[in-house]
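Limitations
The C-alpha cells in this dataset are predictions for the assembled complex, not deposited experimental models. Users should treat interface geometry with appropriate caution, especially where small molecules or nucleic acid strands are included. An illustrative entry is reproduced here so readers can see what is and is not provided.
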Amino acid sequence: MSHKQNFVEGMRDGIPIALGYLAVSFTLGIACRNVGMSALQAGVMSISNLTSAGEFAAIGIMAASGSYWEMALSQLVINLRYMLMSCSLSQKLPHVSMLHRMLVGYGVTDEIFGIASSRPGYLDPFYVYGAVSIAAPAWTIGTCMGVISGNVLPVRIVAALSVALYGMFIAIIVPPARKDRVLALLVGLSMASSWIFSRLPALSEISSGMRVIILTVVLSGAAALLFPVRQKGEDVHA
Amino acid sequence: MHDVYMYVAVMAVVTYLIRVLPLTLIRKEISNVTLRSFLHYVPYVTLSVMTFPAILDATGSQWSGGAALAAAVFLAWRGFSLFSVSVASCAVVFLLDLVMA
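Predicted assembly:
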C-alpha cells in the first residue's frame, strides 16, 4: 500500500476521532475561558500538547499560579501512559527513519495510538499523519471555539459526541478479541479491574492516568507471562 | 499567574519527550518473547481500561452510556467499521436522551 493510500486511510479513521475531540476540546475551551485564557493562548496550548487530561490539569495549575516545576511534574505523571504506548508502537516501526519517528511522536494520543496499533503488520508513518491532519485541527479549533463562544453547542449534542471516542475504542478491541479467546479474556478482565479501581473507595483515589499505567503493566505483564506470543499476531495457544 | 506561554512551553516539552523518547530510543524489534508479548498486549488493556467504566459516566445518564456501550460492542462484533460504530454509539445516546428527557 502506498504512502498516499495510508495517508487517506488515516484521514478516514481520523474522522471519528475528530468528532470526539470536538466534544472534549469544546469543554476544555470553556474551562480555559473560565480561568481567563484567551482563545489564542488556549489554541496554542491545544495544538502544541494534543492531550486532554494533561491540559485540564494544566488549567488548574495556571489558575493557582503553580510553579513551572509543578507544571512539568504534573504533565509527567498524567501523560506517562504515552510512554507505554510509544514503547508498544516502536515495535510496529522497525525500519523507519529518525525524522519520521520524531514526527509520529507528536501524534501519540490515546486515540491515534488506538487506531495505529490496530493496523495489520508494520505501521506506515503516513497513516498517523493522515489521522493527525484531521484530529489535531479539530482538537485545536474546538478549544478555541469553547473559549470564544462559551456554551454554544447544545448540551445534548455534546453528550452524544462524548461517547464517540469510546465507541471507537470498542471498534478497535472487539474484532480481534472475537477471534482470540485470550484477548477476549484480557479485555473483560481489564474492564472489570478498571471498574473496581474506579468504584472502590481507596482505589478510586488513584487518578485515571495512573490507573491506566498500573493496570496495563500488571495485566499485560501477566498475559505476556502466561500466554507469550511467538510470532507477530500468532499466539502459541491458538 | 506566571506567563501562560511559558507554562504551555513547559507542558509541550515534557509531553513531547514522553511520547518521542521510546520511539527514537527503541529502534530495533525486541527479540525477548516476554517483552514483545507484553507490548503486544498493551493496546488491548489500555483501551479497555480507558473505555470502561468511563463510557457510563460520559453522558448525562448511565443508561444512555450503557446503551452506547452495548450498541458499540454489538456492531463491532458484527464487523462494522470504526466510523459506523463510533457514530452509531453517538446516535444511541442522542436518541435515548431525547426519549428519556
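Some entries come with short summary sentences. For this one: Chain A has a mean pLDDT of 90.
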